[in-house]
Write a structure and sequence with these properties.
The complex is a heterodimer of chains A (288) and B (81). Chain A is an alpha+beta fold. Helix content of chain A is 31%, strand content 20%. Chain A starts with 5 loop residues before the first helix and ends with a helix. Chain B has 2 helices and 4 strands, in the order βαβαββ. In chain B, helix 1 crosses helix 2. The model of chain B has no long low-confidence stretch (mean pLDDT 94). Classes of the chains: A alpha+beta (288), B alpha+beta (81).
């Protein structure tokens, strides 16, 4: 029998188990969405080839444990009938995670799923010096933990106030968690301190008169890690309002990672070693 | 400007989602255009209850900070959606 290439299997989402020649099979998911049709196939495969259960990973993945080496090709063929693919592991762009975003969640400020899908189309499975994780979260509630990722994208809104519709009711001041807004009912004035604003959009969402509107955008965090070592991703420039600019930033970041990281070095540690200033300069070059 | 309310409810002693449930029940008793005065706590209630009222077509007229971690919110009942 030919020697088993465990590394190739792992790259294709088949993780070796403690049990000999059995694998936990990782499936491809994007933004934590799985169609009912795929779920049905997963159910069938887990029953027929696994042990009748799946494991949900910490990053919105699904794994079917106890797939036998000799069944792998047959399982993949069955999956292909409905377009279900295996995921990836190892030094490459991993599952793109996302919350449900503004098309479903009342708190959402950006459409997260289309962003996750586009990131997946651009980078899925591409090889890098180490694993690289993207996470997309729709608002400051941060359900998808943007700062834990190598690149985290968080929805926000830059609020803008207009005098005409305003009734000076004071609700925006009451809901602002950063105390960036002051309403003087008697003087009929509203003051907004931009530096205090965290772009959460609570003023916009709650204003009864649409006096607060805003421009929705993306805050980007770099270099987060939450494994053997822990680092919080950092934001290094103001919000981005344009999707094309967002992808320019992600393209350039991955190029930088590929060029500058040592093999086996996570992005956050590369940034620490070569210096954030250098990365910032490089990004600014791209955004010119 | 002081607003004359048609009814008053204190939801400072309950937590989400009972806060909004109580408000909903109270506002159902009113006619469109009538005003409910609601006393609520800062934090989650003030951030969520007025927003839910907006989603149900009611209109916040005024918010008074009582300077004791509570707010008094005056809401005008809207037409049924």
């Amino acid at each position: 029998m030919a020697k088993v290439d465990y590394k190739a299997l792992k790259a294709g989402g088949l993780m070796r188990q403690v049990q000999k020649e059995q694998f936990s099979m990782r499936l491809k998911t994007v933004g934590g969405q799985i169609s009912a049709e795929h779920l049905k196939k997963i159910y069938e495969i887990a029953n027929k080839y696994g042990q009748g259960y799946v494991h949900l990973t910490s990053r919105q993945g699904v794994e079917i444990p106890f797939i036998k080496l000799e069944d792998i090709e047959e399982v993949k063929r069955e999956m292909a009938t409905v377009g279900l693919l295996t995921g990836v592991c190892g030094p490459r762009v991993r599952t793109i995670t996302a919350c449900q975003g503004s098309s479903v969640c009342p708190n959402g400020l950006i459409e997260t799923i289309p962003i996750a899908e586009k990131l997946d189309q651009r980078y899925a499975g591409l090889e890098f010096p180490h694993k690289f994780k993207f996470g997309v979260t729709g608002c400051n509630n941060n359900c998808l933990k943007a700062e834990e990722n190598d690149i985290g994208i968080k929805g926000g809104v830059q609020p803008e106030w207009q005098v005409d519709p305003c009734t000076f009711c004071g609700l925006c001041e009451a809901v602002c968690p950063k105390k960036a807004i002051k309403v003087d009912r008697d003087a009929q004035t509203v003051t907004f301190e931009q530096d205090l604003c965290n772009f959460c959009g609570k003023c916009v969402k709650s204003c009864p008169n649409e006096a607060w509107t805003g421009k929705n955008g993306y805050s980007v965090y770099f270099g987060g890690l939450f494994g053997n070592q822990i680092a919080t991703g950092k934001s290094i420039f103001p919000m981005i309002y344009d999707e094309d600019v967002l992808f320019k930033v992600t393209d350039r970041t991955l190029e930088f990672f590929k060029k500058r990281a040592k093999p086996g070095e996570r992005f956050g540690l590369t940034l620490k070693r070569v210096g954030w200033e250098e990365f910032e300069k490089d990004l600014q070059e791209a955004l010119k | 400007m002081s607003i004359k309310a048609n009814d008053f409810i204190d939801i400072t002693n309950v937590v989400c989602p009972i806060t909004f449930v109580k408000v909903k029940v109270a506002i159902e008793e009113l006619e469109p255009g009538e005003i409910l005065e609601i006393k609520m706590s800062s934090g989650e209630p003030i951030q969520n209850v007025p927003r839910s009222l907006k989603e149900e077509n009611h209109k916040v007229l005024q918010v008074v900070n009582n300077e004791d971690e509570t707010y008094t919110v005056y809401v005008e009942k809207g037409e049924e959606l």
